[in-house]
Each structure stands twice: as C-alpha cells, then as structure tokens.
Backbone:
C-alpha cells in the first residue's frame, strides 16, 4: 500500500495541510479539531521530538478509534514531562505504572476491556527506547508472542534521556552519551552492539510492524490508521530527535528526523505478518555527515582531530540499510534532480 | 475538598503551567517581498494574484493584478518577464510561468467582459496626458481611480502607442489591444486623437490643467549616414512597422536587410518575412551573445527563416547591392573593423538602430530639464517644473512597455500627491524573500508548462498570433507551482509541527496566531515553514 502523492499542489503531500487539498487528503494534525492528546504546558524541552511524536501518533489513533482509546505509559521523559503532580497534560485516559512493565500493563488493560464487553475501546502502550528495547523488552516480547490486542509505540530518541542521556541498546555507534564517553580508539558508543527492535518485532510474526519519523506526518498517521485496522499485537517505532540528548539546535528536530531517513540511517518501512510490504524511498539522498554534523554527540568525529574512518563506518551502515530495504531514490526523482 | 493522605494539591491541567516564560526568542508571522514582485517594473503583486488563481479564483486574481497594471492580456504577451528571471522556483526546478498565467487571466477577463473598478470620487482636478502608449494609458487609469479628470491626447488616429504602431500583430493581436484600451477609456477618460501637442505650456494653460503627464515615447527612428544610391530603398524600422500597422505596408521587395540587433530589428525582419520577403537578413555588428534582443525572440525569428550576418556593419548601399564590413570583437568585447568586405544583394535596407524622442513640444519651456535626449524626473516622475511629469520611453527608462505602465502608475501617484499637496510616500518595502528563507523540501516536483507555438509554416505567411495561451487546467497547474515566497499560503506546517500546541489555527484573513503563553521559542515552526513567512525575534527580557 503506498501513499498517493498529489503533484498538482505547491506542497504535494509533504506539508501538514494545504487549503487546496480535499479534507480527506489532509492530516489529522491540520485540523483545528484534532484531539491534542497531550496538551500545552507540558514540561518537555524546547523542540522535543518525543512530545511531538506522541501527539502525532495518539491524535491519529484517536481519529482511527473514534475517540475510544486508552494509553499506558512507561516511565521516561514522556511520562515525566506530562504528569508532574498535580498537573497532567493528557486529554485522553492514560495510565502509568513502572519503567519496565508497560507492555504487560497494556495487555492487562486490553483484557479488562474485553471482559467488560468493551472491545471497542482500543489500547496503546507507549515507552521510550529504553523502556522498549531494554527494560521493557521481556514483557513486550511476551505481549507479541501472545498476540495481545495492543498497539505498542516506541518513541526512539536513542538513549535514556529522562535520567540524563545514558546509553540504551538503541543508541547508535559512535554517539557520545553520559555512559559512552569519547575516549579510546572507538570514542562514543561501540559498533556492533544494540538491538534493532523493528526487525525483532517482525521475527514474532505479529500482524503489523512499522517505523516512522516525526518528519513525515502523512506517513506516520497512515501507519497508525493501518495499525488500528488490525486486532492483535502491533508495533510502531517512531524516530524522535532529542535536542538535549543529541546536542542539536532546538529548531532542527524535524530536519534531523528527515535527514535520518534521507541518509538511510533510519529505514522507514512497514511489514505485515513478518514480511516487509512497503518502504519509504529516499527522495533527496544525503551523506551521513550532513546529519551527524548537526549534533554535538558526534562532534568528536569532525574538526582537526576528526575521525573520517568512523564517519565512513556510519556511512556503511546507511548504505547497508539502503541495500537491505531498497531505499534508493526513485529513478524519476533522480532525473528531476539532474535536469535541475 | 477531601484529599487523600499527604496530598495537598488538586490535580488539574498542565495549561496552568505557562511554559512561554522559558522563551528567549519569539516567532512572529511576517510578509516578505517575493522576488518576482520586486522585479516587476509595473509593481504587480504577483504572488498575491497567483495565490488567488491557485484556488481557481480567476476574477479575484485578475482584480488583484489590475490594482497595479490594467493591461494583463497585453503584458501576458509582450512583457519580457523579468519576474521569471527572479523567481525562486528555479531552486526547485524551473521558474513559474508567471507571464503565461497573466495572459490567461487577461484573456479570461476579456472573454467574460470584467470591467475595471469604477473611477474614484471626483476631485475636481484636471490632468492632461500627452501620448497614449502604455505610460499614458497606465497613468490615465490610475488617475481615474484616484478621482482626477483625465484628457488623453495622441497624434495618431488610434490609442496604444508602440503597442499598436511598433509591436506587430502576430505578437499582440489588435482585438486584445483594443479590448484592454477600451476598458480604460470606459472609466470616463476624455480622448482626443489625431491631435499633436506642439507646445506643452500653451496646451496646459489653455485647457486649464492642474497637471500634465508627458508620455510621448520615442518615435523617431535613428538614422546613420550610409552612402546610398538614389534608387536604393532605405527606411527606418519604426516607420516601416508603423506603416504596416496602418495597413499601408511599403514595398520592400524580396530581399530585405535589417540593420541592428535589438527586438525592433527582429520584429522588422519577421514582419518582412510575412509580407513576402524570401530573404530577411539581419546585419549585426557583434555576435549572438552580445545581441540586446531577447533570446526567445531570436529563437522564434530564426525558426521563421530569418537569417543573421553576425559581426558585420553596413558600409554602403547601391544598385541593389549592400557592402558589409566584417568586424571582430576586441578584448573588451567591442567590435573593431577588420578591413575585409563582402557583398549582399538587397532590395531594401531597414534601419533598426534605436529611437529618439521628439521633445519639440518642450521648446518653449526652460524649466523642464532634458538630458541624454530624455526628460529628467524625480522619483515622483515630476520634472523640474511643478505639475509637469514625464515617464515611459521619454524619460530615463529601460524602454519596455512594462516599465512604461509602471511609470504611468508612479506618475499618477506623484500627480495625486502634488494635487493634494501632500508628501509622496512609497509603500513599505518588506525584506526580500530570498531563496535562503525557503524550505524547499515541502514543494513537490512540478515541471513548467510551456505555451503552445503556432506551426512555423503558418507563421511565414500571415500575422496570426505565434504564441498560444494556456488552457485553464494548465494555468491552474502553473499558478500552483508558485512557492508563495515570503507569504503564508496556509500549508498548516507551523500549526502541525509545534511540540507545544502553541499555534492557533484561525482560518480566514488572520490564518494563524501564536499562543505566547505556551510557545517555548524552539523555532521549529520557523525552520519548517516552506515559504519563509515566520521570523524569530529576540524576546525583550
Ligand atoms: C518594434 C518594437 C517592439 C517592441 N516590443 C516590445 C516588447 O515586446 N515588449 C516590451 O515591453 N516593449 C517593447 N517595445 C518597447 C515598448 O513598446 C515601449 O517601451 C513602450 O511602448 C513605451 O511606451 P510609452 O507610453 O512611453 O511610449 P509610446 O508607446 O511610444 O507612446 C507614445 C505615444 O505618444 C504619442 N505622441 C508622441 N508625441 C506626441 C505629441 N507631441 N502629441 C500627442 N501625442 C504624441 C505617440 O503617437 C504615441 O502614441 C517595443 C518597441 C518597438 C519599437
Ligand atoms: C526500574 C527502574 N530503573 C530505572 C529507572 C529510572 N529511569 C526513569 S526513566 C529512565 C530512562 C528512560 O529512557 P527511555 O525509556 O529511553 O525514555 P526517554 O526518557 O528517553 O524518553 C530511567 C533509567 C526507573 N524509573 N525504574
Ligand atoms: S530530554 Fe529529550 S526527549 Fe526528554 S523532554 Fe527533553 S528533548 Fe524531549
Ligand atoms: S515562486 Fe511564486 S512568489 Fe516565489 S518568486 Fe516565483 S512566482 Fe514569485
Ligand atoms: S514551534 Fe511552537 S514552541 Fe516552537 S517556536 Fe514555534 S510556536 Fe513556539
Ligand atoms: Mg529514550
């Protein structure tokens, strides 16, 4: 299933909305009546990608379920910045228990709804990358294995941000964190480790697995909608830049997410029952430097004492992703660029 | 209220927490000046009318267009469109076909009989406009809008100036010209044709005019001294084209040589072809790169069988034989004679070496300053004599029809300020929306639509219009290619990308508003605005 690109409008379907688009072609976010699942006044940092990703995903899920939605949250930035007692930013039913048990709690809530005869109420579980790929991994794998009726969303900012930017199993190689200092022959996080959760989820043969970024709203919303059309365990992995943890300018959040996709470092695709069904191809191929240089967590790779060899290894990762998922730009896009 | 043990606060929404206090910079919506608008000599709000056209609001678009230029169907044909050269869309693919859409709007208006806005409330002031070319017509239109009475006089039997007597019909059909001129005169302009003004002061005072606008153009074809035998037919291009426009074409024979390298030379050669010349040869002293004529026009002329002798000057013309001297360009690009000669058979020679202004009507006036053959004016277009204004080809100008209409508008505003005895204020100039303000990621690839061209064979024999118009569908597509540089076009990006829901979507005129109670000043909205319509400014702390 691929998205319809409307070529006749100034902004095609890349922008949030457009007064010239029909209501059906507009995003949920373009509507003044969107839920705003997470309200103003939350304490996320300036330019937080996670706050944005959560609103995007949950507002889309609210539309897909006609407002019959309940969210279960793991500990992490999203939980902490939205609910410092006695305030809450949530405008949807929302529940928090622990850092590591969100998938299990979500399973329990779904079961409770079924018992109450309210299977129309759908459940979303959500966590940061730490809560998903590390401490929550056991309960998540169980949730997948039992095919519980939950959409689990991971907001991946590539580290334990809430506690001060420690490494997680989703932190990319060479990145500096509080626990992967830039010392030694391989400064920053090491190569060859970490977990690729979307692929692990696919290995569970669950009905639906997808990745998305905050830079392509149409794609993200469509995937949430698609996810809600299935019953059983579903997994959505959303790439959400973190200005604080990455040392990036607060206004670069969306641009960085776009570059992660356009370099091939973060493959955007979807899979059904363990098989990849759709990939978002690169539109304007960019070298990894362009993405890395905007983030201070990679600053040790550049400048006088830079490490072009490490940059090359990161480029190789991007190239491997491009090859694995077939992300190379479409021919006609390339032609257009050559003409220009 | 009963509270659980150790709980002292009531739960409530985070909206109580005004995170706007974190901000050190704030986003504000701005309008920047689109480069197309900046480049338009007639001062059109191109981005503004394209915005209306994008949603199919052609009448609204046309109304916005004629606020500045009452001749869109004409401009959509003859303007050399400097706007397109400035268009930011080249950063994405190719410039927006502004001129083609302008013509579509102009033609649609004529088809539907849309009329210009009514004249303004009568001020009781009377203005004499001398010359009914684009400058005079533009001035008459704007003066009527401002409520002044206008008498428009011209020595020719019909209005239009060089639009009628210079530019050939295959580029500007007369029905179009007539329709757009009639719309202006219908606003209540007193028109006197076949009347040459010989003394401006006499004419002004006898008629009791409060102000005068001199828009007499440059009617005199320049001559150079070329030894020519008695029997040799030599004519200047403006006279030639004028006679053709009068439907009284001179007999030039089958071999016509045109001397010069400007647009007028091309028009003369193409016209000669249409009148039956088998050979229409342009002789030009420099090479193609240095030719002042516009590349598109050159291309079209060559396509119609016009040929060019580059790097040549005409030495003499006798017994149906033209002697040419070959030139070469020196290091500075100037042509130098080589001493080598060649011959060319010719029945006639047309001189297209530029035009001079005939300012004999100023002979009795010592105040108006004439320098370099043209009337000197201030920014208001006023000459050194109070109440006497000048514009178009008769004033310092790039000598295009578009500059002339622009002068007409500016002069009308200058005259208005003079008559009301107030200072002339030109509108606020916004910062230029240069390409670095754009986030071009959001624009879809959409190649430009070209206008259809008349088949070549049909162009060699008649005066049918060469360039066709766009269909409605194509014009809409083209309008939608506009990036809306520097001006919000409601893409909802700022509303969508704010992590703090601090953008309020209002719809209607105001479009969006910031909620500074919650805006943390991250700047994402500015970064992701496709067209550069938001700016970060420091917060006063
Ligand atoms: C062959 C040719 C092709 C051209 N092609 C283009 C083109 O494609 N695009 C473009 O933008 N420009 C073109 N131009 C230039 C453009 O036509 C002129 O710059 C423009 O018409 C100047 O406008 P104007 O109103 O100043 O003068 P004009 O158009 O010359 O009008 C002046 C009017 O004043 C009248 N007049 C003069 N003296 C008196 C007097 N004493 N009393 C009463 N009336 C008087 C004349 O009869 C005339 O009607 C072309 C010019 C020529 C000659
Ligand atoms: C069992 C347990 N261990 C440690 C913590 C401390 N802790 C809270 S949030 C967090 C990191 C969250 O990281 P992630 O899930 O990636 O979310 P982020 O804050 O990055 O969005 C940690 C370590 C805890 N709350 N519970
Ligand atoms: S640390 Fe990162 S994820 Fe957490 S609130 Fe700040 S920007 Fe968002
Ligand atoms: S893209 Fe539109 S607003 Fe920008 S310069 Fe071109 S025509 Fe003007
Ligand atoms: S995106 Fe929101 S918080 Fe950031 S500057 Fe714009 S309005 Fe303010
Ligand atoms: Mg994290």
Residues:
């Amino acid at each position: 299933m691929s998205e319809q690109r409307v070529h006749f409008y100034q902004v095609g379907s890349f922008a949030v909305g457009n007064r010239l688009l029909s209501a059906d072609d507009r995003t949920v976010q373009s509507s003044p009546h969107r839920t705003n699942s997470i309200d103003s006044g939350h304490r996320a940092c300036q330019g937080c990608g996670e706050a944005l990703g959560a609103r995007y995903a949950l507002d889309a899920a609210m539309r897909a379920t006609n407002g019959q939605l309940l969210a279960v949250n793991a500990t992490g930035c999203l939980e902490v910045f939205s609910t410092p007692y006695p305030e809450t930013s949530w405008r949807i039913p929302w529940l928090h228990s622990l850092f590591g048990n969100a998938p299990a709690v979500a399973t329990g809530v779904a079961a409770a709804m079924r018992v109450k005869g309210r299977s129309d109420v759908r459940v979303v579980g959500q966590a940061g990358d730490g809560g998903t790929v590390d401490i929550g991994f056991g309960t998540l794998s169980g949730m997948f294995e039992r095919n519980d009726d939950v959409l689990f969303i991971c907001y991946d900012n590539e580290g334990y941000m809430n506690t001060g930017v420690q490494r997680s199993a989703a932190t990319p190689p060479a990145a500096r964190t509080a626990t992967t200092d830039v010392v030694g022959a391989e400064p920053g996080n090491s190569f060859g480790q970490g977990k690729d959760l979307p692929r692990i989820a696919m290995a569970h043969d669950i009905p639906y697995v997808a990745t998305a970024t905050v830079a392509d709203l149409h794609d993200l919303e469509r995937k949430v909608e698609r996810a809600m059309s299935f019953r059983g365990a579903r997994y959505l992995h959303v790439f959400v830049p973190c200005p604080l943890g990455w040392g990036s300018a607060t206004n670069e959040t969306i641009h960085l997410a776009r570059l992660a996709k356009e370099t091939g470092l973060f493959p955007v695709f979807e899979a059904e029952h363990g098989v990849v069904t759709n990939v978002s191809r690169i539109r304007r191929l960019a070298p990894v430097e362009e993405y890395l240089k905007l983030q201070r967590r990679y600053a040790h790779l550049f400048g006088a004492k830079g490490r072009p060899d490490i940059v090359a290894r990161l480029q190789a990762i991007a190239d491997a992703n491009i090859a694995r998922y077939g992300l190379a730009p479409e021919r006609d896009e390339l032609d257009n660029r050559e003409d220009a | 209220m009963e509270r659980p043990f150790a709980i002292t606060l009531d739960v409530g929404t985070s909206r109580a927490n005004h995170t706007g206090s974190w901000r050190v910079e704030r986003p504000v919506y701005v309008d920047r000046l689109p480069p197309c608008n900046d480049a338009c000599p007639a001062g059109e709000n191109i981005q503004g009318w394209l915005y209306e056209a994008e949603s199919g609001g052609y009448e609204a678009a046309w109304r916005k267009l004629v606020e500045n230029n009452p001749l869109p169907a004409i401009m959509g044909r003859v303007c050399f469109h400097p706007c397109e050269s400035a268009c930011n869309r080249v950063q994405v693919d190719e410039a927006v076909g502004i001129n083609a859409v302008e013509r579509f709007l102009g033609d649609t208006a004529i088809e539907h009989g849309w009329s210009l806005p009514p004249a303004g409330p009568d001020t009781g002031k009377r203005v004499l406009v001398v010359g009914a070319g684009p400058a005079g017509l533009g001035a008459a239109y704007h003066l009527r809008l401002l409520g002044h009475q206008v008498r428009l006089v011209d020595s020719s039997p019909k209005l239009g100036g060089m639009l009628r007597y210079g530019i050939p019909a295959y580029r500007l059909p007369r029905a179009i010209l007539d329709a757009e001129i009639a719309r202006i005169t219908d606003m209540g302009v007193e028109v006197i044709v076949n009347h040459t003004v010989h003394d401006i002061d006499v004419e002004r005072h006898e008629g009791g005019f409060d102000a005068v606008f001199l828009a007499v153009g440059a009617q005199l074809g320049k001559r150079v001294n070329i030894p020519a035998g008695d029997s040799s037919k030599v004519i200047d291009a403006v006279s030639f084209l004028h006679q053709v426009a009068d439907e009284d074409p001179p007999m030039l024979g089958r071999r016509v040589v045109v001397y010069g390298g400007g647009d007028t030379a091309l028009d003369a050669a193409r016209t000669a072809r249409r009148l039956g010349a088998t050979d229409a040869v342009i002789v030009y002293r420099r090479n193609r790169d240095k030719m002042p004529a516009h590349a598109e026009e050159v291309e079209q002329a060559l396509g119609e069988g016009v040929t060019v002798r580059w790097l040549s000057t005409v030495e003499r013309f006798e017994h149906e034989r033209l002697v040419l001297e070959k030139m070469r360009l020196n290091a500075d690009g100037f042509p130098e004679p080589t001493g080598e000669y060649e011959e060319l058979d010719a029945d006639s020679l047309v001189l297209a070496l530029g035009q001079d202004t005939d300012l004999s009507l100023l002979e009795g006036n010592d105040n108006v300053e004439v320098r370099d053959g043209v009337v000197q004016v201030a920014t208001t277009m006023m000459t050194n004599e109070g109440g006497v204004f000048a514009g178009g080809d008769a004033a310092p100008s790039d000598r295009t029809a578009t500059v002339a209409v622009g002068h007409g508008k500016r002069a009308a505003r200058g005259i208005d300020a003079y008559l009301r005895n107030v200072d002339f204020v030109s509108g606020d100039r916004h910062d230029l929306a240069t390409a670095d303000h754009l986030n071009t990621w959001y624009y879809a690839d959409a190649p430009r639509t070209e206008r259809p061209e008349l088949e070549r064979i049909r162009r060699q024999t008649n005066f049918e219009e060469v360039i066709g118009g766009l269909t409605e569908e194509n014009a809409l597509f083209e309008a939608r290619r506009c990036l809306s540089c520097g001006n919000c076009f409601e893409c909802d990006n700022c509303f969508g990308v704010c992590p703090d829901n601090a953008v309020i979507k209002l719809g209607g005129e105001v479009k969006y508003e910031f909620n500074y109670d919650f805006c943390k000043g991250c700047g994402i909205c500015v970064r992701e605005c496709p067209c550069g319509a938001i700016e970060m400014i420091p917060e006063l702390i």
About this structure: Chain B touches chain A through 56 residues (CB under 8 Å).
